[in-house]
Design a protein that fits this description.
10-stranded antiparallel sheet, Porin, globular, 10 strands, mainly beta
Length: 141
């Protein structure tokens, strides 16, 4: 068995999310919890183009004792051709100066044009901003 040293990926889309102000629950049993509603967003790329259904999603963040954060996000996308796509991802937000989230999205859709998404394991890298984040989303090939 040979070792895989590179992961083949296919670019799916760029997703830009606008976020509400966070709500904090400090010192919970698993660390500080941060709840962030996804207000709206856009998805644009060669495989999917559309909008994030307003307030359809949220990030339930757990800030760990080591300063890293675990992400738990669910949201809905409406494609430009009328399909509904569910996107769910977990990931890690690092503590470095860039605080770049790294995530692993999975999708669900019942629309015939997007059934292929039901079998995609995604990977995404985010660029955070003030009350916003932009992700480059890829499918593992």
């Amino acid at each position: 068995m040979s070792e895989i040293t590179e992961l083949p990926v296919e670019f799916l889309f760029t997703m830009h999310l606008e976020l509400a102000a966070p709500v904090l629950m400090p010192s919970g049993p698993h660390g500080t919890r941060v709840f962030v509603t996804v207000l709206n967003g856009t998805v644009a790329g060669p495989k999917i183009t559309g909008t994030v259904v307003p307030s359809s999603g949220a990030d339930w963040v757990t800030v760990r004792a080591d300063g890293y954060s675990q992400l738990d996000v669910r949201l809905l996308i409406t494609t430009d051709d009328g399909a509904v796509v569910s996107m769910q991802y977990g990931g890690i937000l690092d503590t470095g100066p860039d605080r770049r989230p790294r995530t692993a999205p999975v999708f669900q859709s019942s629309h015939e044009r997007y059934l292929w998404l039901n079998n995609v394991q995604g990977v995404a890298i985010g660029t955070p901003g003030r009350n916003e984040v932009t992700y480059q989303v890829y499918a593992l090939a």
